[in-house]
Design brief:
The complex is a heterodimer of chains A (279) and B (325).
Chain A lengths: L1 H8 L1 H23 L30 H37 L1 H16 L2 H12 L3 H28 L2 H8 L4 H37 L10 H7 L9 H28 L12
Chain B lengths: L1 H30 L4 H9 L4 H10 L6 H13 L13 H36 L4 H15 L2 H15 L17 H39 L2 H8 L4 H39 L4 H10 L3 H29 L1 H6 L1
Classes of the chains: A mainly alpha (279), B mainly alpha (325).
């Protein structure tokens, strides 16, 4: 209850949660709201917003609203899955480094630093291009370029928890190391990881939109970035083709960032108001 | 002489990272679909085995992997990044031709972000929860969430299509202008929109980072002491708070500098700016992987350079770091 109360104190976070709930609902209900293939031609090309098409049609006569409704699923899915994978990699690397220390730690820190040195967006472009664009390759590429900050955070949490008495007690009582890491230390390191993870979903959605904008989206699925990129040649005559999908991206990302900050206030009250910015 | 020891360590570390990136690059080339022989055969329209074998021999692709890797590392050291699969021109030349345009764009955006962001953030931190502060926080949150390519498109719609104030794309006017002053003005007019587009996201980050960092520093004891001594508020802010508060900003600025090229790919694509970002985009579509990897390597080198530079600047800004080593 204290958690909910602290969360609700942040009005922006409540607004973010409402927006996010709407986006999730739209994504889940997409087949009911806009039945049929969003990639199919529905009307005359380049119709301005109004009438049968509240958001207009694109150069192939596809319904922009249908694209936005179905695109929500792709954005959220990619944001969520890539973040889960990145968190799994990051926490594993960080936990092992922070818990064991010594040479293992040295090696893993070097590897993490190296991955942080690689220019992440170009690396993501390369990975998707080499693996050929698909949902799986985009998710993999985003996860590969985003795990290092999680690893650093997990490492510092594990390093400080490692020396606490309850961990020493678990070691002395003969529990296996894996067991100690997973069931003793990890639960105590969760809150900052959850906060960072939630903010990473937002970044992942932005990265996906930029990849799709450049033409590296999954060719079989409509996505917001793809819609803007595909309409690039006609955007001066047909403003609605870029304005609506862009608003959808910005609103969703904004909502997730607000939720992330609310979680930060609620889970880490001592850090209230401080924003984590990691690259 | 601890400074010399530091510099030596610095150079060794940089070289290790560059070597690791070069090796990564080599394996990425091998992972890319189709080798240069296939691509060139496709271009030439003749794909008989003899042709493929000859090209593979020319590129050294018939050698064992280790030999190829050694050759590749040797080539990179001498700044030879191989040839473009499409045009057959040296990749290094193609990148060097385009590099000034990208440096102009990213450099302008970088300076703009570094000047405007921390300034606004510091002003907001001096009057927390004022109208100015709240408004700035909302605006920066919005720009932090907005894809930069979309900001670019909107700026073109407003300032080029609707108002007709600024050119929507390119680096120079179609009809060449004469006179040095007129040429510089022409270039500047083309630079405004892409530079602002690239800078806005980072301004948003700096605003929030500076504000948070200043508020945190302001609550420290030594700042209270400075106030208790009766120093004027602007002196407390500029001499006592700012110096400490600058450290996370410098750290981020260093990280960001090298990553600007990533943002430049998108911005240069939107504004048809003839830099290496645009080159990477074209290479992507022509499946010219060697060229794409060349751009990747060059931007990775820029990251290493800026990271090292940041380390140096931090040692100057924060003497505690030098003492720690």
């Amino acid at each position: 209850m204290a958690f909910l109360k602290r969360y609700a104190e942040n009005r922006g976070a409540v607004a973010g949660l409402v927006i996010l709930a709407v986006v999730v609902a739209v994504a889940l209900a997409a087949p009911l709201l806009m039945p049929g293939d969003p990639m199919a031609t529905r009307g005359r090309p380049l119709l301005p917003p109004g009438g049968d098409f509240p958001f207009g049609t694109d150069m192939l006569g596809r319904d922009v609203l249908a694209g936005i409704v179905h695109g929500a699923k792709v954005s959220l899915m990619i944001g969520l899955i890539s973040t889960v994978i990145a968190v799994l990699i990051g926490v594993t690397v960080g936990a092992v480094a922070g818990f064991f220390g010594g040479q293992v730690d040295d090696l893993l820190v070097r590897v993490t630093e190296f991955f942080q040195t690689i220019p992440s967006f170009i690396f993501a472009i390369l990975l998707v291009a080499i693996m050929t664009p698909s949902l799986a390759s985009i998710v993999t590429a985003i996860a590969v370029v985003t795990w290092p900050p999680i690893a650093r955070l997990a490492r510092s949490e594990f390093m400080s928890l490692r020396r606490r008495e309850f961990v020493e007690a678990a070691v002395l009582s003969g529990l296996s190391r894996t067991r100690i890491i997973v069931s003793e230390v990890l639960p105590n390191a969760m809150s900052p990881l959850i906060v960072m993870g939630s903010l990473m979903i937002a970044t992942a959605i932005l990265t996906e939109s930029a990849l799709s904008f450049l033409g590296l989206g999954d060719p079989n699925r409509i996505s917001w970035g793809y819609m803007i990129g595909a309409a690039r040649t006609v955007f001066r005559q047909a403003w609605w083709l870029s304005v609506f999908p862009g608003l959808a991206i910005a609103l969703t990302v904004l909502a997730i960032n607000l939720v992330g900050e609310g979680l930060n206030d609620a889970l880490n009250p001592h850090l209230k108001g401080r924003m984590r910015i990691e690259t | 002489m601890p400074q010399i020891g530091f510099l030596l360590q610095w150079v060794v570390k940089a070289m290790a990272v560059v070597l690791a990136i070069t090796i990564l690059n080599f394996f990425l080339i091998r992972l890319a679909p189709g080798d240069p022989a296939m691509v060139m055969a496709g271009e030439a329209g003749a794909a008989d085995q003899q042709f493929l074998d000859r090209v593979r021999q020319d590129f050294g692709l018939d050698q064992p992997v280790v030999v190829q890797l050694w050759t590749y590392v040797k080539n990179v050291v001498t700044l030879d990044l191989g040839q473009s699969y499409r045009t057959g021109r040296p990749v290094t030349d193609m990148i060097l031709e385009r590099l000034p345009a990208t440096l102009l764009l990213t450099g302008t955006a970088y300076l703009l972000a570094l000047l405007v962001g921390p300034l606004l953030g510091a002003l907001a931190a001096m009057r927390p929860r004022s109208i100015f502060d709240s408004l700035l926080m909302v605006v920066s949150l919005v720009f932090y969430a907005t894809p930069i390519f979309w900001v670019g498109l909107l700026l073109i719609l407003v300032f080029s299509v609707q108002l007709g104030w600024l050119p929507p794309f390119g680096m120079h006017s179609m009809i060449p202008v004469t006179g040095t002053a007129a040429q510089i003005l022409d270039l500047a007019r083309h630079l405004v929109l892409p530079a602002i587009t690239l800078a806005l996201f980072y301004i948003a980050v700096y605003v929030r980072l500076t504000r948070a960092s200043m508020l945190e520093t302001a609550s420290l004891d030594y700042v209270k002491t400075a106030r208790a001594k009766g120093l004027p508020e602007w002196r407390v802010a500029s001499a006592h708070i700012l110096r400490t508060a600058l450290i996370p900003i410098i750290t981020f600025a260093g990280l960001q500098a090298g990553h600007l090229v990533g943002g430049a790919i998108v911005v240069e694509t939107v504004f048809a700016w003839p830099g290496i970002g645009r080159l990477a985009f074209d290479a992507l579509f022509q499946r010219d992987y060697n060229l794409l990897l060349g751009v990747f390597l060059v931007s990775a080198l820029m990251v290493v350079f800026f990271n090292m530079l940041t380390d140096l600047v931090l040692r100057i800004a924060d003497p505690r770091i030098a003492g720690r080593a």
